[in-house]
Amino acid sequence: MPELNPKSAHGNMEKIRLEITGLSYSQLQSGAYALVLNEKEGPRRLPIIIGNFEAQSIAMELEKIRPGRPLTHDLFVSFASKFDISLKEVVIDKFVEGVFHAKLICEQGGSESVIDSRTSDAVALAVRFKCPIFTYEHILKETGVVMDGNEDDPSEEVVEEEPKTAKKSSFDELTQEQLKEMMQKAIEAEDYEKASKIRDELNRRENLE
Fold it and tell me: Rounded CA gap, 134 and 20, in Å?
């Protein structure tokens, strides 16, 4: 990996820590998901539209769902570990023509390097390496949504909410044990989309308890 001066990697701008607070189907794009990142010490949220594969990858790691074979992001982690490369942090550093850009701040043998990345891939790797996610003030100022106690959840603008009169789910007649067994079979068959939907149903039931 090319070595870069730490100052050129981070710049002089103060970084703002972000945390994942939401991941759901997007109302804006068919087959896409809305990833919502929240300012750790503030009210602003950063909604990002990502692809289905990356969303499934992030969700599976957050829920500790282990696939039968490693996903691409899991393979990257194994590769990095083999060569003693660690991911120190992820920085969402640009917003150009409606697209977020990110950088992976990596370290190997005491040398720091920077790798360009799609934001969705960067977040999928961040949750696996358990490293922090940052952005800059100008990014939040331009694209962030302010959240306070007197407003509705701003993620409603980009996250598909469950209809109040939703159709009966095919999972409604199944017990939690049956759903867990079905999810495991879906994982073994590498049907991660189905596994994710079953996981969402299990989470929904837990929230109702």
Answer: 11
126: nearest Cα among 167, 87, 155: 87
Per the DSSP assignment, residues forming a β-bridge with 92 are: 102, 135
Question: Residue 199: which residues within 8 A CB-CB, separation 6 or more?
Answer: 59, 63, 65, 183
- β-bridge partners, 146: 44
Does the predicted model carry a pTM greater than 0.85? no
DSSP states of 1-61:
--B--HHHHH-SSPEEEEEEEEEEEBSSSTT-EEEEEEETTSSEEEEEEE-HHHHHHHHHH
Q: Is 147 helix (H, G, I), strand (E, B) or coil?
A: coil
**119-130 confidence digits (pLDDT tens):** 999 999 999 999
> What is the C-alpha separation between 108 and 23, in angstroms, rounded?
32
The C-alpha atoms of residue 76 and residue 90 are separated, in whole angstroms, by: 15
141 contacts 39 by C-beta, under 8 angstroms: no
* Cα–Cα distance for residue pair 113/115, rounded to 1 Å: 7
In tens, the pLDDT along 64-86 reads 888 888 889 999 999 999 999 99
Ranges of H-type helices in 130-175: 137-143
